[in-house]
From TrEMBL, chain A:
GO CC, one annotated term: plasma membrane
Stored Gene3D superfamilies: MetI-like (1.10.3720.10)
Transmembrane segments: 15-37, 70-89, 101-124, 199-224, 253-275
Name this polypeptide is given: ABC transporter permease
One Pfam assignment: BPD_transp_1
InterPro entries: MetI-like (IPR000515), MetI-like_sf (IPR035906)
Annotated organism of origin: Skermanella stibiiresistens SB22
Taxonomic path: Bacteria, Pseudomonadati, Pseudomonadota, Alphaproteobacteria, Rhodospirillales
TrEMBL record, chain B:
One Gene Ontology biological process: transmembrane transport
InterPro entries hit by this protein: MetI-like, MetI-like_sf
Official protein name in the record: ABC transporter permease
Membrane topology of this protein: Multi-pass membrane protein
Family per similarity comment: Belongs to the binding-protein-dependent transport system permease family.
Amino acid sequence: MAGSRRSITSYEVRLAFPLALFFVVFFLTPLVILFILSLRSDPQGTSHGVGQYVQFLGDAFSLGVLGSTLWLGVKVTVLALVLGYPVAWLHVRSPGWAKGVIMLIVLLPLLTSVVVRTFAWIVILGRQGIVNTMLIDLGLIDTPLRLLYTETGVVVALAQVQMPLMVLPLITALSRIDPNLADASSMLGAGHWRTFRKVLLPLSLPGILAGCLLTYAAAITAFITQSLVGGGQMLFMPSYIYQQASALQNWPFAAAISIIFLVAVLAVVSIFNVLGRLSRGYAHG
Amino acid sequence: MNRRAVDYEAFSFRFVMVAVALLTLVLLAAPTVVVLVVSFTNGFSLRFPPPGYSFRWYVELWKAWQLQFAMVNSLKVAMWTTLLSVVLGVAAALGIARSDRLTAKVLDSLFMSPLVLPALAFGLSALMFFSLIGLPVSPLTLILGHTVVSVPFVVRNTVAALAQLNPSLLEASASLGASRLLTFRRITLPLIRPGILAGGFICFMASFDNVPVSLFLRDAATDMLPIRMWQDLEGKLDVTIAALSGVLIVATIALIMVMERVAGLSKRLT
């Protein structure tokens, strides 16, 4: 009987085929078309070649946009890690009711509309915003500082907007660590800082890497936050793609920029995946 | 090391960790609180703290038909996207969960890839694809595009719920003579339902909030709420948007509370 060879606990992989077909048609095919279009030398498609890529890679302005986007991601990720790690640490050590409160504060930004979250930063950083009002009231400054439309503003806003993506995997990783290990470490004479460095940090490395990957990928592709807090002064890859495709109708170049951005993100993801596999081996034995 | 030094060392570690954690929690919560407060201003600017308080911008919201139109569109698209994602995603999760086959692993990576790839690049490619096959921009193209970027949440949460399923329950059901279908309906489905609910909820929020895909697949007739808000904010800093944000924040908090009760949302995200 054919049925008896199937285990009751697993289902047939066939069940995944409808979604697989959906992805082939509406996800992979568009990406292939994007690639083919990027090989057009002009919007009409009279000739083909790698001209668009040569143009991008030979242009200091375009390379600058790519570089500043990737670098922006690094700054946001580091800030989110430094600020987010203690939150995860506190969550794991809190009593039940405090866990709930911390979780709500962490989850709320994750599920609120990104436009709302970004809008909040416009209110905070604006000329009449809370930061400027406070500094003027304290007599520290006379005229409002320009905080909106600066890179620092973008980094802080993005770190807050994407923080949940960092904190959630960290909570997972930290709650899996046996608390006896820290006790054993201090029993053997190590101080709290040393225990943190030698026990907690290495064991939570898989969570750190998972959080960093999610935060990084989200930060460099965060079109809304980048364009609203950054304003017209700063150009990052998502806005660059949108500008070329929408305002200038230069589809082949927009397609080429998209492919370059995709490849850059894939490269970063692969690096994190390799590091993640190494760190799991390190953390679990 | 004497005892005082040890205490100081322990204190300094705890102090730094707790201080940074509390500061970050304030930083995380502040934007939401600030928007809620500003939305009750009686003035015309986004000054904080507001000069006085009133409901005027919420009343204004009642008359903002463009925002309401976009909101209805976004809700419709998010509903259909969630429906399509749950049907396709739960079936796919059943197919790939608990399987060691290479096909299952490859499909899992494929289904998760929209989560890390820049959605804006996908949005552009989807627009090129639909214009090539001659399908004009419509709610249908929006639903198809949104499903690609939102279905991973359903697949991931359902796979996780299936992985936690105790196989002996299924074996017991089978040994008592239940068919595969009956076992699925009476044992598997009730046990993974919270996972499906959580996945569907996050999928709905992801579609409702989607910008990068909608940006390319929408036109004036299918205006979407996040895009409408973004364009309003680019032009002028409208206080009506603060009132709308207030409504969205309260609705989100209420939904999180409900989902926490029925699906244990926070446990599924960590």
